[in-house]
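Need a sequence for this fold. Nothing fancy.
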């Protein structure tokens, strides 16, 4: 598993994940748990959706 998520992409994923979790909490909706996906991919630096297409947003 090589990292394929770069710096800006990680920041956007973290913000989006936190926003989705916050929305789910305030709306009391379990769909906010979808925010865990971008948070997890940002933390590990690998996105399974990028892998089949060979997309890499990191510089290395």
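Here you go.
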């Amino acid at each position: 598993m090589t990292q394929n998520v770069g710096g800006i992409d990680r920041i956007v994923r973290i913000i989006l994940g936190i926003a989705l979790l916050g929305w789910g909490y305030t709306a009391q909706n379990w769909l906010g748990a979808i925010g865990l996906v971008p948070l997890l991919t940002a933390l590990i630096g690998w996105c399974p959706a990028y892998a089949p297409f060979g997309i890499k947003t990191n510089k290395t």
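For context: Residues 7-47 form one domain.
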